[in-house]
């Protein structure tokens, strides 16, 4: 009996020693930083979901189609490849995960509160535009300070980009923002992919590409209008459960003074929280697909167009709409006293734009409708972009911004890039802004409007 007790005590002492060693190693070498960051994020007040909040974190907008529900927290993706492959999000990026009153992820809760004496850059577009600011807005700001040292005012970089947005949503958002008095000195329109990909999908389904992406809009409408099916209700319940477990994994540790002081406990709790949050995100995608598959088209407005339908080809129409809305944004920006810059976003499916490495080919490249749309429609956008430039609009083709770089930049098979790619893109956008600002200042006042 004594031998058994001695063996048990020895095992407990050994385990305690191992745990202590791991604890010291975590503290000394700053190990598992991402998991500990997840722990801290779950403790933030903004991470608490409202009890009555819908499982889908979007809401209907009467002009834009949909926006994120203000207060919603969105974590940076880690799949197929992480946005931040080398560690946790930067201090800037960590502060951009909560949807503000305008429905965009930003540390500015209300853009109308910005003082007029600041130099404000607004970036419009889809998710690539949004992530540019959320991930590398500080890089864009620092690059502008280097390229435009004559600007002595503090620089703010705001996002007006949201997943699935395509023209004319950016143009409408610019109209709304200027009407509301949001101070803007520079308007950046970073787009192209959503217009040709979602626009083509809508056109082939018989819906006019001028209207918001129906695969996004219908899901929001159908999910929030009530009367969900049993399967949808079950999925929504599982989403809420996973979201709650992500929070509970951390709060149980935080409730214990002993566990709260342990970095190892924080690592375990943070890892569990990330797993639950990832499951919630995957389930939300499944719910979106389920609702989208059954959503009727009868109550959605559309417009007739000869090219609509499965056998039609509306790419030229899509390119024309893209060009016209850019001209409209330029006119609105000038009327508001702002400089306008239009940038065609890079994409891995543009032939010759980047040598894809083995990781990117495995995780960020496939042959499907999006790759075909980009290959066929981007040449049309480039042609119309050249027309914009010839007419004095600051258009920049940024499809070659990653040319010659074989490091991993693209992180999924759509269009999104990691933190390194966003930093490179931010510097290219800063170059375009600096050129446009100097050109505008050299222009006679009478010609600026």
Fold topology:
Layout: H1 2-29, H2 33-43, E1 58-61, E2 65-68, H3 91-94, E3 119-125, H4 127-147, E4 155-161, H5 169-179, E5 186-191, H6 193-204, H7 214-224, H8 230-254, H9 257-260, H10 263-294, H11 315-335, E6 339-344, H12 358-363, H13 369-390, E7 394-397, H14 419-442
Parallel strand pairs: 3-4, 3-5, 5-6, 6-7
Antiparallel strand pairs: 1-2
Spell out the key features of this protein.
alpha/beta, two-stranded antiparallel sheet, 449 residues, 2 domains, 14 helices, Rossmann fold
Q: Can you tell me the CATH architecture of the largest domain? A: 3-Layer(aba) Sandwich
Strand content: 5-15%
Counted beta strands: 7
What are the secondary-structure elements, in order, as H or E? HHEEHEHEHEHHHHHHEHHEH
Average predicted confidence as pLDDT: 86
Strand order of the largest sheet: 4-3-5-6-7
Structural class: alpha/beta
Give the helix level as a range of percent. Answer: 40-55%
- Largest sheet geometry: 5 strands, parallel
Instruction: Classify the fold: give the CATH topology of the largest domain.
Output: Rossmann fold
Which residues sit in consecutive blocks of at least 5 with pLDDT less than 50? 45-54
Radius of gyration: 24 Å
Inertia-based shape: globular
* CATH homologous superfamily label of the largest domain: SGNH hydrolase
DSSP helical segment count: 14
The total number of structural domains is 2
Name of the CATH class of the largest domain = Alpha Beta
- Taking the alpha carbons of the first and last residues, their distance comes to 93 Å
